[in-house]
Amino acid sequence: MQFQASTFLWTQHCGIISFNPLIHLHSLELDLKQQRIIACKVVHANTSFPPFTLVNIYAPATYTQRVTFLKEVMDLPLFNFSPLRPPESLSALQETLDSDPTMLYPMLFMGDFNYHATTYIVDNSDNLTHCTTNLNTGEDIHRRFHQTINTHFLECTRSQEEGSLLPTFRSGTSQSTIDYLYASPFLFQHLHSSDISFMERSGTDHALLRARFVFSSDRQGPGLWRANPRLATNPYFTDSLFPTLDVEFFVKLELTESIDLAAAVEPTTPQANWDELKALVQNIATQVGRNKSNAMERQCKRLQRKRNRICRHHQEPHTRFLQLLRAIKSKIGSIQRDIAENQRLCADHHWREHGETSAGYLKRTIETRAAKKSITGLLHPTTNTLCTNPLAMQSAASTFYGKLYSPDPVVPDSINTLCDSIPPTDTIPTNEHIALQSPFTIADSLSETLRTKLHSSPGVDGLPYVILNVILQHAKAAKLAVKVFNDTLALGIFPASWLKTCMCLLPKSGGLFNLKNWRLLSLICCDAKIFTRLLNSRLMPLMNKLICPQQSGFMPGRFTGENGLIFQTTKLIGAQQSSETIALLLDQEKAYD
Protein backbone atom coordinates (compact mmCIF):
# COMPACT_ATOMS: atom_id res chain seq x y z
CA MET A 1 0.00 0.00 0.00
CA GLN A 2 1.46 3.33 -1.04
CA PHE A 3 0.30 6.63 0.42
CA GLN A 4 0.86 10.04 -1.11
CA ALA A 5 2.78 12.22 1.32
CA SER A 6 1.56 15.75 1.95
CA THR A 7 4.87 17.11 3.29
CA PHE A 8 8.10 15.28 4.00
CA LEU A 9 11.74 15.74 5.00
CA TRP A 10 14.48 13.34 3.96
CA THR A 11 18.14 12.73 4.61
CA GLN A 12 20.31 9.86 3.46
CA HIS A 13 19.46 7.81 6.55
CA CYS A 14 16.09 8.95 7.93
CA GLY A 15 12.96 10.90 7.15
CA ILE A 16 9.77 12.44 8.52
CA ILE A 17 6.53 12.22 6.52
CA SER A 18 3.11 13.80 7.02
CA PHE A 19 0.22 12.13 5.19
CA ASN A 20 -2.22 14.74 6.45
CA PRO A 21 -2.37 17.93 4.32
CA LEU A 22 -3.35 19.87 7.45
CA ILE A 23 -0.12 18.96 9.25
CA HIS A 24 2.91 20.90 8.04
CA LEU A 25 6.57 20.14 8.70
CA HIS A 26 9.04 23.02 9.03
CA SER A 27 12.65 21.86 8.91
CA LEU A 28 15.02 22.86 11.72
CA GLU A 29 18.64 23.34 10.76
CA LEU A 30 21.09 21.27 12.82
CA ASP A 31 24.83 21.91 12.92
CA LEU A 32 25.68 18.27 12.39
CA LYS A 33 27.60 16.84 9.45
CA GLN A 34 26.09 13.38 9.74
CA GLN A 35 22.70 12.95 8.10
CA ARG A 36 21.55 10.54 10.78
CA ILE A 37 19.32 13.03 12.60
CA ILE A 38 16.48 15.15 11.27
CA ALA A 39 14.37 17.65 13.21
CA CYS A 40 11.34 19.74 12.35
CA LYS A 41 8.56 21.80 13.86
CA VAL A 42 5.13 20.21 13.42
CA VAL A 43 2.22 22.64 12.99
CA HIS A 44 -1.48 21.94 12.44
CA ALA A 45 -3.23 24.32 10.03
CA ASN A 46 -6.37 24.34 12.19
CA THR A 47 -4.39 24.61 15.46
CA SER A 48 -5.95 21.34 16.62
CA PHE A 49 -2.83 20.74 18.68
CA PRO A 50 0.02 23.01 19.84
CA PRO A 51 3.18 23.10 17.69
CA PHE A 52 5.88 20.69 18.80
CA THR A 53 9.38 19.62 17.81
CA LEU A 54 9.85 16.21 16.21
CA VAL A 55 13.29 14.58 16.12
CA ASN A 56 14.06 11.35 14.30
CA ILE A 57 17.46 9.64 14.52
CA TYR A 58 19.18 6.65 12.96
CA ALA A 59 22.20 5.91 15.12
CA PRO A 60 25.12 4.03 13.54
CA ALA A 61 25.21 0.30 14.10
CA THR A 62 28.95 0.21 14.80
CA TYR A 63 29.94 1.02 18.39
CA THR A 64 32.70 3.59 17.68
CA GLN A 65 30.64 5.58 15.17
CA ARG A 66 27.62 5.50 17.49
CA VAL A 67 29.67 6.93 20.38
CA THR A 68 30.79 9.87 18.22
CA PHE A 69 27.24 10.41 16.95
CA LEU A 70 25.62 10.41 20.41
CA LYS A 71 28.22 12.84 21.75
CA GLU A 72 27.50 15.25 18.86
CA VAL A 73 23.75 14.95 19.46
CA MET A 74 24.12 15.85 23.15
CA ASP A 75 26.09 18.96 22.16
CA LEU A 76 23.26 20.26 19.94
CA PRO A 77 21.39 23.35 21.30
CA LEU A 78 18.17 21.40 20.79
CA PHE A 79 19.12 19.17 23.73
CA ASN A 80 20.35 21.84 26.15
CA PHE A 81 17.74 21.13 28.82
CA SER A 82 17.58 22.64 32.28
CA PRO A 83 18.58 20.17 35.02
CA LEU A 84 15.54 18.14 36.04
CA ARG A 85 14.95 14.99 38.03
CA PRO A 86 13.28 12.14 36.15
CA PRO A 87 9.63 11.68 37.22
CA GLU A 88 9.07 8.57 39.30
CA SER A 89 5.42 8.15 38.35
CA LEU A 90 2.59 9.78 36.43
CA SER A 91 1.31 11.46 39.60
CA ALA A 92 4.79 12.86 40.23
CA LEU A 93 4.85 14.00 36.62
CA GLN A 94 1.58 15.92 37.09
CA GLU A 95 2.91 17.57 40.26
CA THR A 96 6.05 18.62 38.39
CA LEU A 97 4.00 20.06 35.54
CA ASP A 98 1.90 22.07 37.98
CA SER A 99 4.92 23.45 39.84
CA ASP A 100 7.35 23.95 36.93
CA PRO A 101 5.78 25.34 33.73
CA THR A 102 9.22 25.32 32.05
CA MET A 103 8.82 21.58 31.59
CA LEU A 104 6.09 22.22 29.04
CA TYR A 105 8.43 22.02 26.05
CA PRO A 106 6.57 19.78 23.58
CA MET A 107 8.91 17.38 21.78
CA LEU A 108 8.85 13.87 20.33
CA PHE A 109 12.19 12.06 20.10
CA MET A 110 12.18 8.76 18.24
CA GLY A 111 14.05 6.50 15.89
CA ASP A 112 16.51 3.64 15.64
CA PHE A 113 18.90 4.13 18.59
CA ASN A 114 20.79 0.92 17.75
CA TYR A 115 21.35 0.02 21.41
CA HIS A 116 19.37 -1.83 24.06
CA ALA A 117 18.11 0.64 26.67
CA THR A 118 18.42 -1.68 29.68
CA THR A 119 22.17 -1.96 29.10
CA TYR A 120 22.69 1.65 30.21
CA ILE A 121 20.16 2.01 33.03
CA VAL A 122 21.98 3.09 36.19
CA ASP A 123 20.98 3.91 39.74
CA ASN A 124 20.41 7.69 40.08
CA SER A 125 22.27 7.77 43.41
CA ASP A 126 25.44 6.48 41.74
CA ASN A 127 25.05 8.55 38.61
CA LEU A 128 26.99 11.66 39.72
CA THR A 129 29.97 9.67 41.05
CA HIS A 130 30.08 7.50 37.97
CA CYS A 131 29.82 10.39 35.50
CA THR A 132 32.59 12.44 37.13
CA THR A 133 35.16 9.63 36.98
CA ASN A 134 35.42 9.45 33.20
CA LEU A 135 33.21 11.35 30.78
CA ASN A 136 34.84 10.21 27.55
CA THR A 137 34.55 6.44 27.47
CA GLY A 138 32.08 4.95 24.99
CA GLU A 139 30.09 3.24 27.70
CA ASP A 140 29.81 6.44 29.73
CA ILE A 141 28.67 8.47 26.70
CA HIS A 142 25.97 5.88 26.06
CA ARG A 143 24.94 6.05 29.72
CA ARG A 144 24.89 9.88 29.81
CA PHE A 145 22.85 10.01 26.60
CA HIS A 146 20.37 7.49 27.94
CA GLN A 147 20.18 9.32 31.29
CA THR A 148 19.56 12.66 29.54
CA ILE A 149 16.75 11.22 27.46
CA ASN A 150 15.08 9.48 30.40
CA THR A 151 15.35 12.62 32.54
CA HIS A 152 13.50 14.85 30.11
CA PHE A 153 11.30 12.37 28.22
CA LEU A 154 9.05 9.41 28.86
CA GLU A 155 9.01 6.32 26.65
CA CYS A 156 5.56 6.05 25.06
CA THR A 157 5.30 2.33 24.35
CA ARG A 158 5.86 1.53 28.07
CA SER A 159 6.67 -2.02 27.06
CA GLN A 160 9.02 -2.42 30.03
CA GLU A 161 6.03 -2.52 32.39
CA GLU A 162 5.06 -5.90 30.92
CA GLY A 163 8.42 -7.51 31.66
CA SER A 164 11.25 -7.79 29.18
CA LEU A 165 11.29 -5.29 26.34
CA LEU A 166 9.56 -6.45 23.16
CA PRO A 167 11.84 -6.88 20.15
CA THR A 168 11.61 -4.11 17.57
CA PHE A 169 14.15 -5.42 15.06
CA ARG A 170 14.73 -8.83 13.53
CA SER A 171 17.51 -10.17 11.35
CA GLY A 172 17.12 -13.79 10.39
CA THR A 173 16.38 -15.63 13.60
CA SER A 174 17.83 -12.97 15.95
CA GLN A 175 15.73 -10.21 17.52
CA SER A 176 16.55 -7.09 19.55
CA THR A 177 15.01 -3.92 21.00
CA ILE A 178 16.67 -0.88 19.45
CA ASP A 179 13.76 1.42 18.46
CA TYR A 180 12.13 3.85 20.90
CA LEU A 181 9.52 6.60 20.95
CA TYR A 182 9.97 9.29 23.62
CA ALA A 183 7.65 12.20 24.44
CA SER A 184 8.24 15.27 26.57
CA PRO A 185 6.02 15.52 29.69
CA PHE A 186 3.58 17.96 28.07
CA LEU A 187 2.87 15.61 25.16
CA PHE A 188 2.95 12.53 27.37
CA GLN A 189 0.01 13.78 29.42
CA HIS A 190 -2.01 13.75 26.17
CA LEU A 191 -0.96 10.20 25.27
CA HIS A 192 -4.06 8.10 24.61
CA SER A 193 -2.63 4.73 23.57
CA SER A 194 0.47 3.10 22.14
CA ASP A 195 1.69 -0.27 20.95
CA ILE A 196 4.49 -2.16 19.25
CA SER A 197 3.21 -4.11 16.25
CA PHE A 198 4.84 -6.65 13.99
CA MET A 199 5.12 -5.65 10.33
CA GLU A 200 5.40 -8.23 7.57
CA ARG A 201 8.91 -8.68 6.20
CA SER A 202 8.04 -7.33 2.73
CA GLY A 203 7.59 -3.90 4.33
CA THR A 204 10.43 -3.62 6.87
CA ASP A 205 12.59 -5.63 9.27
CA HIS A 206 11.60 -3.27 12.12
CA ALA A 207 8.44 -3.29 14.20
CA LEU A 208 5.89 -0.48 14.00
CA LEU A 209 5.88 1.80 17.06
CA ARG A 210 2.64 3.74 17.31
CA ALA A 211 1.48 6.41 19.73
CA ARG A 212 -1.83 8.24 19.66
CA PHE A 213 -2.18 11.66 21.27
CA VAL A 214 -5.59 13.24 21.87
CA PHE A 215 -6.12 17.01 22.03
CA SER A 216 -9.44 18.78 22.53
CA SER A 217 -10.66 21.56 20.23
CA ASP A 218 -13.80 23.71 20.35
CA ARG A 219 -13.55 24.58 16.63
CA GLN A 220 -14.26 21.17 15.18
CA GLY A 221 -17.51 19.25 15.29
CA PRO A 222 -18.12 15.54 14.76
CA GLY A 223 -18.47 15.97 10.99
CA LEU A 224 -20.71 13.94 8.68
CA TRP A 225 -21.07 10.18 8.98
CA ARG A 226 -20.33 8.31 5.77
CA ALA A 227 -20.88 4.66 5.02
CA ASN A 228 -17.75 2.81 3.97
CA PRO A 229 -18.16 2.13 0.21
CA ARG A 230 -16.23 -1.12 0.67
CA LEU A 231 -19.29 -2.49 2.48
CA ALA A 232 -20.85 -2.99 -0.96
CA THR A 233 -18.45 -5.91 -1.50
CA ASN A 234 -18.67 -7.18 2.08
CA PRO A 235 -20.70 -10.44 2.04
CA TYR A 236 -21.76 -9.99 5.66
CA PHE A 237 -23.28 -6.58 4.87
CA THR A 238 -25.20 -7.78 1.81
CA ASP A 239 -26.33 -10.94 3.62
CA SER A 240 -27.57 -8.83 6.54
CA LEU A 241 -29.17 -6.07 4.47
CA PHE A 242 -31.75 -7.95 2.39
CA PRO A 243 -33.28 -10.07 5.21
CA THR A 244 -33.43 -7.00 7.44
CA LEU A 245 -35.20 -5.02 4.71
CA ASP A 246 -37.67 -7.86 4.23
CA VAL A 247 -38.44 -8.52 7.90
CA GLU A 248 -37.94 -5.19 9.66
CA PHE A 249 -39.13 -2.86 6.92
CA PHE A 250 -41.37 -4.21 4.17
CA VAL A 251 -43.31 -6.70 6.32
CA LYS A 252 -43.98 -3.96 8.88
CA LEU A 253 -44.77 -1.51 6.08
CA GLU A 254 -47.37 -3.82 4.55
CA LEU A 255 -48.90 -4.45 7.98
CA THR A 256 -49.03 -0.72 8.72
CA GLU A 257 -50.63 0.04 5.37
CA SER A 258 -53.31 -2.62 5.91
CA ILE A 259 -54.09 -1.21 9.37
CA ASP A 260 -54.27 2.32 7.98
CA LEU A 261 -56.57 1.15 5.21
CA ALA A 262 -58.87 -0.61 7.67
CA ALA A 263 -58.93 2.42 9.94
CA ALA A 264 -59.46 4.79 7.00
CA VAL A 265 -56.26 6.61 7.94
CA GLU A 266 -54.13 8.21 5.26
CA PRO A 267 -51.07 5.95 4.77
CA THR A 268 -47.51 7.17 4.92
CA THR A 269 -46.13 8.57 1.69
CA PRO A 270 -43.56 6.76 -0.49
CA GLN A 271 -41.17 9.64 0.20
CA ALA A 272 -41.39 9.13 3.98
CA ASN A 273 -41.03 5.36 3.53
CA TRP A 274 -37.91 5.86 1.39
CA ASP A 275 -36.28 8.06 4.03
CA GLU A 276 -37.15 5.47 6.68
CA LEU A 277 -35.57 2.75 4.55
CA LYS A 278 -32.39 4.80 4.19
CA ALA A 279 -32.27 5.30 7.96
CA LEU A 280 -32.46 1.52 8.41
CA VAL A 281 -29.62 1.04 5.91
CA GLN A 282 -27.57 3.61 7.84
CA ASN A 283 -28.01 1.60 11.05
CA ILE A 284 -27.02 -1.65 9.33
CA ALA A 285 -23.98 -0.05 7.68
CA THR A 286 -22.90 1.52 10.98
CA GLN A 287 -23.29 -1.73 12.90
CA VAL A 288 -21.59 -3.92 10.30
CA GLY A 289 -18.79 -1.40 9.75
CA ARG A 290 -18.06 -1.08 13.46
CA ASN A 291 -18.27 -4.81 14.05
CA LYS A 292 -15.92 -5.48 11.14
CA SER A 293 -13.46 -2.80 12.26
CA ASN A 294 -13.54 -3.91 15.89
CA ALA A 295 -13.19 -7.56 14.90
CA MET A 296 -10.14 -6.81 12.77
CA GLU A 297 -8.54 -4.76 15.55
CA ARG A 298 -9.25 -7.45 18.15
CA GLN A 299 -7.93 -10.19 15.90
CA CYS A 300 -4.81 -8.16 15.06
CA LYS A 301 -4.14 -7.43 18.76
CA ARG A 302 -4.72 -11.08 19.64
CA LEU A 303 -2.24 -12.19 16.99
CA GLN A 304 0.25 -9.53 18.09
CA ARG A 305 -0.01 -10.74 21.71
CA LYS A 306 0.47 -14.33 20.60
CA ARG A 307 3.54 -13.34 18.60
CA ASN A 308 4.89 -11.31 21.54
CA ARG A 309 4.47 -14.26 23.93
CA ILE A 310 6.39 -16.52 21.59
CA CYS A 311 9.14 -13.90 21.17
CA ARG A 312 9.43 -13.46 24.97
CA HIS A 313 9.40 -17.06 26.11
CA HIS A 314 11.10 -18.77 23.20
CA GLN A 315 14.14 -16.66 22.44
CA GLU A 316 16.02 -19.59 20.90
CA PRO A 317 14.97 -20.48 17.32
CA HIS A 318 12.95 -23.67 17.01
CA THR A 319 11.42 -25.14 13.86
CA ARG A 320 7.94 -25.56 15.33
CA PHE A 321 7.83 -22.02 16.74
CA LEU A 322 9.29 -20.53 13.55
CA GLN A 323 6.49 -22.16 11.52
CA LEU A 324 3.90 -20.85 13.96
CA LEU A 325 5.42 -17.35 13.79
CA ARG A 326 5.30 -17.39 9.99
CA ALA A 327 1.60 -18.31 10.05
CA ILE A 328 0.85 -15.57 12.60
CA LYS A 329 2.83 -12.98 10.62
CA SER A 330 0.93 -13.88 7.43
CA LYS A 331 -2.43 -13.34 9.15
CA ILE A 332 -1.25 -10.05 10.69
CA GLY A 333 -0.10 -8.82 7.27
CA SER A 334 -3.49 -9.61 5.70
CA ILE A 335 -5.38 -7.73 8.44
CA GLN A 336 -2.99 -4.77 8.26
CA ARG A 337 -3.58 -4.43 4.50
CA ASP A 338 -7.34 -4.43 5.07
CA ILE A 339 -7.09 -1.81 7.82
CA ALA A 340 -4.74 0.29 5.67
CA GLU A 341 -7.29 0.31 2.84
CA ASN A 342 -9.97 1.64 5.19
CA GLN A 343 -7.59 4.31 6.47
CA ARG A 344 -6.79 5.29 2.89
CA LEU A 345 -10.49 5.89 2.25
CA CYS A 346 -10.74 8.08 5.35
CA ALA A 347 -7.67 10.09 4.36
CA ASP A 348 -8.63 10.62 0.72
CA HIS A 349 -11.76 12.81 1.07
CA HIS A 350 -11.25 16.00 -0.91
CA TRP A 351 -14.07 18.23 -2.14
CA ARG A 352 -14.15 18.42 -5.93
CA GLU A 353 -16.38 20.34 -8.24
CA HIS A 354 -17.35 18.87 -11.59
CA GLY A 355 -15.61 21.56 -13.64
CA GLU A 356 -12.18 20.99 -12.07
CA THR A 357 -10.34 18.35 -14.09
CA SER A 358 -6.80 19.71 -14.44
CA ALA A 359 -4.45 17.58 -12.33
CA GLY A 360 -2.18 20.54 -11.55
CA TYR A 361 -5.09 22.78 -10.62
CA LEU A 362 -6.61 20.08 -8.41
CA LYS A 363 -3.32 19.49 -6.62
CA ARG A 364 -2.85 23.18 -5.88
CA THR A 365 -6.50 23.65 -4.94
CA ILE A 366 -6.55 20.65 -2.60
CA GLU A 367 -3.41 21.85 -0.83
CA THR A 368 -4.83 25.36 -0.46
CA ARG A 369 -8.23 24.17 0.73
CA ALA A 370 -6.75 21.71 3.20
CA ALA A 371 -4.48 24.38 4.68
CA LYS A 372 -7.28 26.95 4.90
CA LYS A 373 -10.22 24.72 5.76
CA SER A 374 -10.41 26.14 9.25
CA ILE A 375 -11.94 29.61 9.46
CA THR A 376 -10.18 31.65 12.15
CA GLY A 377 -12.42 34.72 11.85
CA LEU A 378 -15.11 36.39 9.72
CA LEU A 379 -16.23 39.97 9.24
CA HIS A 380 -19.89 40.41 10.13
CA PRO A 381 -21.66 41.84 7.06
CA THR A 382 -23.86 44.15 9.17
CA THR A 383 -21.56 45.42 11.93
CA ASN A 384 -18.28 44.96 10.01
CA THR A 385 -16.69 43.61 13.19
CA LEU A 386 -14.36 40.62 13.26
CA CYS A 387 -16.02 37.51 14.70
CA THR A 388 -13.66 34.85 16.08
CA ASN A 389 -15.76 32.53 18.24
CA PRO A 390 -17.85 29.81 16.52
CA LEU A 391 -21.29 31.20 17.45
CA ALA A 392 -20.46 34.71 16.22
CA MET A 393 -19.03 33.32 12.96
CA GLN A 394 -22.20 31.26 12.42
CA SER A 395 -24.27 34.41 12.88
CA ALA A 396 -22.10 36.29 10.36
CA ALA A 397 -22.40 33.48 7.80
CA SER A 398 -26.16 33.15 8.31
CA THR A 399 -26.68 36.90 7.83
CA PHE A 400 -24.47 37.04 4.74
CA TYR A 401 -25.98 34.06 2.91
CA GLY A 402 -29.50 34.89 4.02
CA LYS A 403 -29.16 38.20 2.22
CA LEU A 404 -27.26 36.76 -0.74
CA TYR A 405 -29.83 34.08 -1.53
CA SER A 406 -32.95 36.13 -0.86
CA PRO A 407 -34.76 36.52 -4.20
CA ASP A 408 -34.33 39.86 -5.90
CA PRO A 409 -37.46 41.56 -7.29
CA VAL A 410 -38.02 40.92 -10.99
CA VAL A 411 -40.21 42.48 -13.67
CA PRO A 412 -42.66 39.89 -15.09
CA ASP A 413 -42.96 41.77 -18.38
CA SER A 414 -39.20 41.51 -18.89
CA ILE A 415 -39.34 37.76 -18.31
CA ASN A 416 -42.17 37.43 -20.84
CA THR A 417 -40.26 39.52 -23.37
CA LEU A 418 -37.18 37.33 -22.92
CA CYS A 419 -39.17 34.11 -23.33
CA ASP A 420 -41.04 35.44 -26.37
CA SER A 421 -37.75 36.22 -28.07
CA ILE A 422 -36.63 32.57 -28.05
CA PRO A 423 -36.99 31.21 -31.60
CA PRO A 424 -38.91 27.93 -32.08
CA THR A 425 -35.74 26.26 -33.36
CA ASP A 426 -34.16 26.70 -29.91
CA THR A 427 -36.94 24.93 -28.01
CA ILE A 428 -37.49 21.23 -27.35
CA PRO A 429 -39.73 19.77 -30.09
CA THR A 430 -43.24 18.83 -29.03
CA ASN A 431 -42.82 15.23 -30.16
CA GLU A 432 -40.05 14.81 -27.55
CA HIS A 433 -42.23 15.79 -24.60
CA ILE A 434 -43.78 12.34 -24.14
CA ALA A 435 -40.39 10.62 -23.98
CA LEU A 436 -39.07 13.19 -21.52
CA GLN A 437 -42.04 12.72 -19.19
CA SER A 438 -42.27 8.93 -19.42
CA PRO A 439 -41.82 7.09 -16.09
CA PHE A 440 -38.39 5.88 -15.06
CA THR A 441 -37.67 2.17 -14.72
CA ILE A 442 -35.60 0.13 -12.28
CA ALA A 443 -33.07 -0.51 -15.05
CA ASP A 444 -32.70 3.26 -15.55
CA SER A 445 -31.96 3.78 -11.85
CA LEU A 446 -29.41 0.95 -11.68
CA SER A 447 -27.57 2.20 -14.76
CA GLU A 448 -27.20 5.68 -13.25
CA THR A 449 -25.74 4.32 -9.99
CA LEU A 450 -23.20 2.26 -11.93
CA ARG A 451 -21.88 5.05 -14.13
CA THR A 452 -21.43 7.61 -11.35
CA LYS A 453 -18.06 8.79 -10.02
CA LEU A 454 -17.18 6.81 -6.91
CA HIS A 455 -15.28 9.71 -5.28
CA SER A 456 -18.39 11.90 -5.20
CA SER A 457 -19.16 12.85 -1.60
CA PRO A 458 -22.56 11.81 -0.18
CA GLY A 459 -24.95 14.15 1.59
CA VAL A 460 -26.41 14.14 5.09
CA ASP A 461 -27.56 10.51 4.81
CA GLY A 462 -23.96 9.35 4.24
CA LEU A 463 -24.93 6.73 1.64
CA PRO A 464 -22.59 6.65 -1.41
CA TYR A 465 -23.58 5.46 -4.87
CA VAL A 466 -22.23 1.93 -4.41
CA ILE A 467 -24.41 1.37 -1.33
CA LEU A 468 -27.46 2.72 -3.18
CA ASN A 469 -26.70 0.30 -6.00
CA VAL A 470 -26.85 -2.57 -3.50
CA ILE A 471 -30.18 -1.26 -2.17
CA LEU A 472 -31.63 -1.05 -5.68
CA GLN A 473 -30.81 -4.72 -6.25
CA HIS A 474 -33.51 -5.53 -3.69
CA ALA A 475 -36.72 -5.84 -5.74
CA LYS A 476 -39.08 -4.10 -3.31
CA ALA A 477 -36.57 -1.38 -2.44
CA ALA A 478 -35.96 -0.69 -6.14
CA LYS A 479 -39.71 -0.47 -6.74
CA LEU A 480 -40.05 2.05 -3.90
CA ALA A 481 -37.12 4.12 -5.18
CA VAL A 482 -38.54 4.28 -8.70
CA LYS A 483 -41.91 5.34 -7.25
CA VAL A 484 -40.13 8.22 -5.48
CA PHE A 485 -38.30 9.24 -8.67
CA ASN A 486 -41.50 9.17 -10.74
CA ASP A 487 -43.46 11.17 -8.15
CA THR A 488 -40.71 13.77 -8.26
CA LEU A 489 -40.85 13.84 -12.07
CA ALA A 490 -44.63 14.02 -12.42
CA LEU A 491 -45.77 15.74 -9.22
CA GLY A 492 -42.72 17.60 -7.91
CA ILE A 493 -42.86 15.79 -4.54
CA PHE A 494 -39.48 15.33 -2.84
CA PRO A 495 -38.35 13.21 0.12
CA ALA A 496 -37.46 15.29 3.16
CA SER A 497 -33.80 14.17 2.99
CA TRP A 498 -33.48 15.75 -0.47
CA LEU A 499 -34.22 19.14 1.04
CA LYS A 500 -31.35 18.87 3.54
CA THR A 501 -27.80 19.70 2.51
CA CYS A 502 -24.47 20.16 4.22
CA MET A 503 -22.93 23.51 3.32
CA CYS A 504 -19.14 23.64 2.96
CA LEU A 505 -17.07 26.79 2.43
CA LEU A 506 -14.14 26.51 0.02
CA PRO A 507 -11.54 29.31 -0.01
CA LYS A 508 -11.06 31.48 -3.09
CA SER A 509 -8.48 34.19 -3.66
CA GLY A 510 -8.50 37.31 -1.49
CA GLY A 511 -8.81 37.92 2.23
CA LEU A 512 -10.56 34.99 3.89
CA PHE A 513 -12.07 37.17 6.62
CA ASN A 514 -14.54 38.31 3.96
CA LEU A 515 -17.30 35.81 3.19
CA LYS A 516 -17.32 36.94 -0.44
CA ASN A 517 -14.00 35.15 -0.80
CA TRP A 518 -15.46 31.78 0.17
CA ARG A 519 -17.28 29.55 -2.30
CA LEU A 520 -20.34 27.79 -0.94
CA LEU A 521 -20.64 24.11 -1.82
CA SER A 522 -23.66 21.95 -1.04
CA LEU A 523 -23.33 18.23 -0.35
CA ILE A 524 -26.55 16.64 -1.62
CA CYS A 525 -27.79 13.10 -0.98
CA CYS A 526 -26.68 10.71 -3.70
CA ASP A 527 -30.21 9.44 -4.39
CA ALA A 528 -31.23 13.02 -5.21
CA LYS A 529 -28.24 13.23 -7.56
CA ILE A 530 -29.36 9.95 -9.18
CA PHE A 531 -32.67 11.64 -10.01
CA THR A 532 -30.90 14.62 -11.59
CA ARG A 533 -28.72 12.22 -13.57
CA LEU A 534 -31.85 10.47 -14.81
CA LEU A 535 -33.12 13.82 -16.04
CA ASN A 536 -29.78 14.72 -17.61
CA SER A 537 -29.59 11.41 -19.46
CA ARG A 538 -32.81 12.36 -21.24
CA LEU A 539 -32.08 16.05 -21.73
CA MET A 540 -28.46 15.99 -22.89
CA PRO A 541 -29.07 14.42 -26.33
CA LEU A 542 -31.45 17.32 -27.01
CA MET A 543 -29.37 20.00 -25.29
CA ASN A 544 -26.33 19.31 -27.45
CA LYS A 545 -28.39 20.51 -30.40
CA LEU A 546 -29.90 23.53 -28.63
CA ILE A 547 -26.97 24.96 -26.64
CA CYS A 548 -24.54 26.94 -28.77
CA PRO A 549 -21.15 25.26 -29.38
CA GLN A 550 -19.32 28.18 -27.70
CA GLN A 551 -20.57 26.99 -24.30
CA SER A 552 -18.05 24.30 -23.44
CA GLY A 553 -18.46 24.05 -19.66
CA PHE A 554 -20.61 21.26 -18.17
CA MET A 555 -21.25 19.81 -21.63
CA PRO A 556 -20.19 16.25 -22.53
CA GLY A 557 -17.76 16.02 -25.41
CA ARG A 558 -16.72 19.68 -25.13
CA PHE A 559 -13.46 21.05 -23.72
CA THR A 560 -13.19 24.41 -21.97
CA GLY A 561 -9.57 24.63 -23.10
CA GLU A 562 -10.81 25.41 -26.60
CA ASN A 563 -12.28 28.68 -25.35
CA GLY A 564 -8.97 29.53 -23.71
CA LEU A 565 -7.13 28.82 -26.97
CA ILE A 566 -9.58 30.99 -28.92
CA PHE A 567 -9.14 33.81 -26.40
CA GLN A 568 -5.34 33.58 -26.54
CA THR A 569 -5.39 33.58 -30.35
CA THR A 570 -7.72 36.59 -30.37
CA LYS A 571 -5.31 38.45 -28.06
CA LEU A 572 -2.39 37.78 -30.40
CA ILE A 573 -4.36 38.96 -33.43
CA GLY A 574 -5.55 42.07 -31.58
CA ALA A 575 -2.00 42.91 -30.50
CA GLN A 576 -0.66 42.60 -34.05
CA GLN A 577 -3.46 44.77 -35.47
CA SER A 578 -3.32 47.32 -32.61
CA SER A 579 -7.02 46.71 -32.02
CA GLU A 580 -8.87 48.83 -29.46
CA THR A 581 -11.31 46.00 -28.71
CA ILE A 582 -11.63 44.94 -25.06
CA ALA A 583 -12.44 41.56 -23.52
CA LEU A 584 -15.13 41.61 -20.82
CA LEU A 585 -15.40 38.89 -18.18
CA LEU A 586 -18.74 38.53 -16.39
CA ASP A 587 -18.91 36.55 -13.14
CA GLN A 588 -22.44 36.27 -11.76
CA GLU A 589 -22.68 36.43 -7.98
CA LYS A 590 -25.78 34.20 -7.97
CA ALA A 591 -24.87 31.99 -10.91
CA TYR A 592 -26.98 29.03 -9.77
CA ASP A 593 -30.14 30.85 -8.69
Automatic annotation (TrEMBL):
Q: What residue stretch is flagged as signal peptide?
A: none
Which residues does UniProt call coiled coil? none
Domain of life of the source? Eukaryota
Q: Which residues form the Reverse transcriptase domain?
A: 507-593
Q: Name it.
A: Reverse transcriptase domain-containing protein
